[in-house]
Amino acid sequence: MKRLLLFLFVVCSAVFLSAQSGNVIDAYNYTKSGKLDKALASIEPAITHPKTMNEPKTWLYRGNVYLALALTDDEKYMNLVEGPLDSAYNSYQKSISIDKEYIAPSANPPKAELGLYIIGEQYYNKGVEFFNKQEWALAQNYFEKTKRINAIFGAKDSLATYNATLCALQLGDKETASKYLKELVNMDYRNPRIYPMLADLYKESGDTAKMLGTVKIGRTRFPNDLGIIIAETNYYLGTGQIEKAQELLQQAVEQDPENAILHFTIGSNYDKLARDTSINDEDKQKMIAEAEIAYSKAIEIKPDYFDAYYNMGALFFNAGVEKFEEASNIPPNDFDAYNKAKEEFEGYWSKAMPYLEEAHKLDAKDLNTLIALKALYARLSMPEKLKETNEKINALTK
To answer: 143, 154, 83, 81: which is closest to 113 by C-alpha?
Structure first.
């Protein structure tokens, strides 16, 4: 009797083990025929049974099931599981860990590494999808997954790295952005934008030596790129080497003298420096004058250049505000000094007015321009224009 029971146990065990192996085959067949719900139901028991859980085939087929679920356009299966790409990724990794060389010639894909390659492409597409929706954290996550998969094949995915960098910058994660930008520089990624981006991060951290070193590498690789020239110019302007900065800007202008955007960019840089509270008044006036020249040239080349008109107006408005604040510190009985200061700040505001008014003509719905004009008319005691501007602002903000 005992021998009979033992025999029955062995037979039942063999049948059960055979069933588990059969589940793996069934999963393959159901996947091939597009019956993904049945493929999923077949493969899941096999990954926990001792007979099949350590077989590379089991995990390859499971990866294929989840990859098919991720790629399907059949609504019946599209929401069958959550995160099918991640499950496929983990399954292929498991198959590789058991036997990296395992191949199932009739399967699709026949090898786990090929499955990972396909997943890498899908992760990248997901990253682009979330990037376009400005969902930066999700986009960065998928681009980073793409990077990791390509690293398995010994490839450095520069495009995924660049996109992950842009996401990190949007999220304010400067440490990650800096790390990725260094990787891109080391890869010699053929996009000149990475050099000014990394240089700016070094500048913010106070490491001017690395800032300049980054710019120099960029200038070697892209000697005529405007963005890199501007980054180098900013270094020299920031360190008080005005003549060197002007020399570089002149080189840029000589390369493309009719480029309105170039002149506008030059004006913006001088404009930014003019707002630096650490420079003396003489240098500040030089910066304002240089900005005015550059903005004027941009307007001359492109008469409908809204940004140039707006920036020129803002340049003079801000300069006037600064002089006004200085005047508030003049002793009440020093009438001559105050009248002189008043002439200066009102002079700046009067210069700002036609540029801001022209900017408003070019874009009547720009709220920032109207707000600037409102402040200007109030300061220059122009009640009729102030009333008209208030009405326009109210109409836009209803």
So the answer is: 154
